[in-house]
Amino acid sequence: MDPYKYLNIRLNPDGSLTRNGEAKLLPPCPSGEPIAVTADGPAHRIVHSNDVPLNDANGTSVRLFVPGNDVGARDGSRLPLILYFHGGGYVLFRAASEPFHNTAATIAATVPAAVASVDYRLAPEHRLPAAFDDAADAVRWVRSYAAGSPGRPIFIMGSHSGASIAFRAALAAVDQGVELRGLILNQAHHSGVERTAAEQASVDDRVLPLPANDLLWELSLPLGADRDHEYCNPDAMLAGVSAARLRRLPPCLVLGRKKDPPRDRQRVLVAALREAGVHVEAKMDGAGFHAMELFKDNCAAEFNAQVADFVRRHAHAGDGVDEHVARSRL
C-alpha cells in the first residue's frame, strides 16, 4: 500500500505536508462559545469553550472546555482540570479537529470537569521534541491556571500519540511540583525497530496499517533517528527515567484494545510503572482497533465512562474529603 495515499497527505518540496484527509477543522471558539453536548443518555448539557494562547512565538494554544451551570458543579473551585493531548501520530489533527474537539467537550460534560485541549505543533514541520516542549509549556500554563483556585484536582490525559505526550507532561508536572491526582493514557502510540507480534499482525490493519504507522514515525522523529529512539521505543524512553522519578507519578489509568498495533509496547510501560511502585489501573483488553472511541458510539461511551469513573474516584483522594461528599460536589 502507499502510506501517503492511505493517510491522504502529500510531502511538499520544502518538507511541509499538505493534509487533505484530516477530519473537519472547527472554527476558533470565541470566549464563552456554548456547545450542546449529549451526555448521560439523551440529555443535552451545555459546555462553554474558548481558545487561549499558550506560546505566541510557537503559535500554540489551549482550547478550554468548561461545563455550564446546568452541570451543577456546586463548588466551582473544586471542578477537576484535565490537561488533554489529542492523537494523530504527531502528524495529523488539531485540538479543533472535530473528533478530538467533541471528545474534550463530552468529557467536560460527563465528568464534569474543565478540559484544556492543547493545540501543539505538528511534524514534520516541527519534529519531535516540539510537541513535548509544547507540553511543558502547557504544564506551566496549568500551574498558573490552578494557582487562581487552590485545591483544584488536576489530571493529565492523552489519546494515542497524545498519550505519549501526556506521559512526558506528567513527568514535567511532578518535576515542577504540580500535584497531580491522576494520569490517563489511552492507547499510547509507541514502536521500535524490532517488530512485536502485534505489529507483525498489523500489515493490513483497518485503522493503523504497518506502512502508515512506519511513515508517521519517519515524519515525526528527529532526522536520522530510527524507531528505537527514546521518543518512540518505551524501552529507550524508560532507560532515561529513574524508578524514583516514576514513583512520583500519580495513579494511572492505562487503556488499550485487543487489536491495537502498539499494544505490546503499551504493556512494557505498564510493567515498568508497576515495578516502580506506581498505582496502575490497566484495562488493556477493550474490543476493537486503534482509536475506536472516535469511530464507534459504543466505544466512545465506554471510554467516556472509564475516564469519568477514574477522575471522580481520584479527584479528592487523600485530601480528607469523604468520598460521598466529594461525588456530590462533582
TrEMBL record:
Record domain Alpha/beta hydrolase fold-3: where: 82-292
Q: Which GO terms describe its molecular function?
A: hydrolase activity
Q: Which Pfam families match?
A: Abhydrolase_3
Q: Which InterPro entries has this protein been placed in?
A: AB_hydrolase_3, AB_hydrolase_fold, Carboxylest/Gibb_receptor
> Which PANTHER family does this entry report, sorted A to Z?
ARYLACETAMIDE DEACETYLASE, CARBOXYLESTERASE 8-RELATED
Q: Any idea what this protein is called?
A: Alpha/beta hydrolase fold-3 domain-containing protein
**The species this protein was found in:** Lolium multiflorum (Italian ryegrass)
